[in-house]
Amino acid sequence: MSTRLLNWRQIAERINRSRSWIFAAVRARRFPPPLDLPDLPGRALWTEASISDWLDQQVAAAKARAEAGARTAPGSARPNAVRRERKTAGGQA
Predict the structure, then answer these.
(1) Cα 16 → chain centroid
(2) 62-73 pLDDT, tens per residue?
(3) Which domains, and CATH codes, for the chain?
(4) What are the φ and ψ backbone dihedral angles of 30, each rounded to 5 degrees?
(5) Measured between alpha carbons, how far is 15 from 49 in angstroms, rounded to an integer?
(6) 33 torsion bin: left (phi>0), alpha (psi -120 to 50), beta (else)
(7) H runs (alpha helix) in 1-93
(8) Contact 6/45 with Cβ under 8 angstroms?
(9) What is the pTM of this model?
(10) Which regions of the chain are under pLDDT 50?
């Protein structure tokens, strides 16, 4: 069985994200890290299987949120609520 390797451009096209998003997500441990291949130093390559697994996890999480009745993106509703509470607590409307 052969393993297909993908570079960041192929991944960006597949997941509809930018290069900077991919590498920021890797640093934040929200995206699989690239392989460390000694024969290809300095190349950021991922296995197609690792990206497919990540996509499957994202789809499963989105379905779970939808079933739970969440209608907003993860993390987007709470920070706004916190900001409003801070403004109100400070006497500002």
Answers:
(1) 11
(2) 999 998 885 555
(3) 5-89 (1.10.1660)
(4) -105, 0
(5) 14
(6) beta
(7) 8-15, 19-27, 48-67, 77-89
(8) yes
(9) 0.68
(10) 81
